[in-house]
Amino acid sequence: MDKWLVLFVAVAALSSISDAYKILVIFPLPGRSHGILGVNVVNHLLQAGHEVTYITPFPVKDPHPNLQQLDVSANFDIMDENLSDVKRILNKEIDFSNPMTMFQFTIDLFTKTVEDPNVVKVFNDTNQKFDAVVAEWMFTDSYAGIATIFDCPLIWFSTIDPHWIVLSLIDESTNPAYVPDSLSSTIPPFDFKERVTGLFIQIVCSAFQYFYWDGVVEESFRNVIGPYITLRGKEIPSFYDVNYNVSLFLGNSHVSLGQPIRLPQNYIPIGGYHIETKVKPLPDDLQKLLDNAKNGLIYFSLGSNVKSKDLPDNLKYGFLKIFSELKHTVLWKFEEDLPNLPKNVHIVSWAPQPSILAHPNCILFITHGGMLSTTETVHFGKPIIGIPVFGDQFTNIERAVKRGFAIKVTLSYTMLDEFKAAIDEALSNPKYKNKAKELSAIYHDRPMPPGKELVHWVEHVIRTGGAPHLRSPALHVPFYQKYYLDLLVLIVTIILVLVLAVKLLLRVFLISKKDLKKKNQ
Ligand SMILES: *[C@@H]1O[C@H](CO)[C@@H](O)[C@H](O)[C@H]1NC(C)=O
Ligand SMILES: *[C@@H]1O[C@H](CO)[C@@H](O)[C@H](O)[C@H]1NC(C)=O
Q: Are 298 and 397 part of one and the same domain?
């Protein structure tokens, strides 16, 4: 009898444990939007009852009891604040064109994160166990090794639309003849030049990776991650085995926001999961402002990195003059006091963006076009005027323009006329609003909210021991086999041999004929 009781208790205990998993979530980049994406992954997992250890430069106060935060705010030390200085961008003093700078930054960030004392404490504890690692993929595969330390499944998180570099980690490169590169704003069908450019970029990047970058990453894996694997009494595997051992990719994307490209079974788009299903109520003053905006409210924000207060005076006051001539209410996220505001213009130093966009009286959003802002505009179905400043913002806005719900204005000292024309066009032509509404309807028409999907797939990976059944068979098929180059070689060889044989036969035949003739003469 006792034996059965013990068994019963053991089974009950096991089944209750197996519902809650221990998950390590890694979003080390000290950028606000990356922090928002990370903390919302964490929140969904916590709400589902899991225990989360979270490596972040943005630790929250009073964390959830099931949340352990590993503070890597020291990562801010290697971030160049000047990169988002509006005046330097306007004066074209900042050069984003050297990809080496970015690659080097990603590896520096990795080393800094993993060597942070708060992280070392956990990695060095051989009793520490995790059921899965969820890590942001930001142009380096280095973090893959962390799942190897804990001998658990690796789940990548991609912040942008699916593209060939990440897809080649779980399936194969996309075809540049009809799939755009991650930083290109081209939309298929491509013309000849676009197709060739796409192919060229893909070949050059792949060669760079194969001949140089993979070696750098492998070395950093051996030096930084290797000791923790040895500490657990295991051999350090080759980085190839670590890198192509991805269980799942979660993508901050959705087909309503990007391109309808083919995806492998273990790429799950969850774009929009960071937006709460019920938006938070607005603070009283903003609620009143929006309720009373009879002619509609225009919301203007350049995001969290670029500060409107740093704009040169001619732009600041130029914008104000343009706004003052409108009959609409304008809400501008501006980080300091601004004297002599026109009656219809209001400034806030911090703005609850989703709650503002959710209000029916908000009719236009003027934005830098970051991935989160772009997602939020489609979520709430609002047209935009895009003023991209750096990074993927150019691509996001360019794509939004091509999809018909945005007008682009280029940031420059002389942008005022263009800006005014854009506002007039956006307010008078209903096509932008209608397109935004149409895309929003597509965006919301899903079987399951994206946050639920996130949790489901993370649990699925853990429940099925790394979800090997989802992995693409294309992953380990070498290039020459995929394109049947071996068959081609075989066919060409056979043809050559045949041709040679025929030639040889003919010669022998002709010679013997000649001989015959000679004899007959
Ligand atoms: C990690 O643990 C190893 C072995 O226990 C020890 O030699 C090493 O000093 C530890 N490292 C840190 C940074 O605590
Ligand atoms: C590959 O992934 C599995 C889980 O899916 C994990 O247990 C294993 O340690 C990983 N192997 C390597 C070399 O990272």
A: yes
The boundaries of the domain holding residue 440 are 284-444
Tokens of 320: 């104000």
Task: State residue 94 phi and psi, 5-degree precision.
Answer: -105, 130
Would you say residue 232 lies in a domain?
no
* Ligand 1 centroid, distance to 124 Cα (angstroms): 6
- H/E stretch holding 67 reads strand 67-71
Q: Report if residue 220 sits inside a domain.
A: no
In a domain, 188, yes or no: no
Statement to judge: residues 417 and 298 lie in one domain? yes
Q: Is 120 in the pocket of ligand 1 (CB under 6 A)?
A: yes
User: Contact, 147 vs 126, CB < 8 A?
Assistant: no
- The number of the ligand nearest the C-alpha atom of 461 reads 2
Which residue's CA lies nearest to atom 13 of ligand 2?
Answer: 242
Is the whole model's pTM more than 0.85, yes or no?
yes
Q: How many domains does the chain have?
A: 3
Q: Is 413 exposed, middle or buried (0-12, 13-18, 19+ CB in 10 A)?
A: exposed
pLDDT in tens, 355-393: 999 999 999 999 999 999 999 999 999 999 999 988 889
Looking at the CA of 151, name the nearest ligand.
Answer: 2
**Residue in the block written with tokens 């150019």:** 394
Residue pLDDT, tens place only, 313-363: 999 999 999 999 999 999 999 999 988 899 999 999 999 999 999 999 999
* CA dist., res. 48 & res. 22, Å (int): 12
- Residue at 83 is within a domain: yes
Q: Give the residues surrounding ligand 2 with Cβ less than 6 Å away.
A: 147-148, 151-153, 237, 241-242, 245, 247, 466
Which CATH number characterizes residue 376's domain? 3.40.50.2000
Pocket test for ligand 1, best of 114, 122, 124, 224 (most atoms within 8 A of CB): 124
Ligand having the closest approach to the CA of 228: 1
User: Based on the domain organization, do 383 and 516 belong to the same domain?
Assistant: no
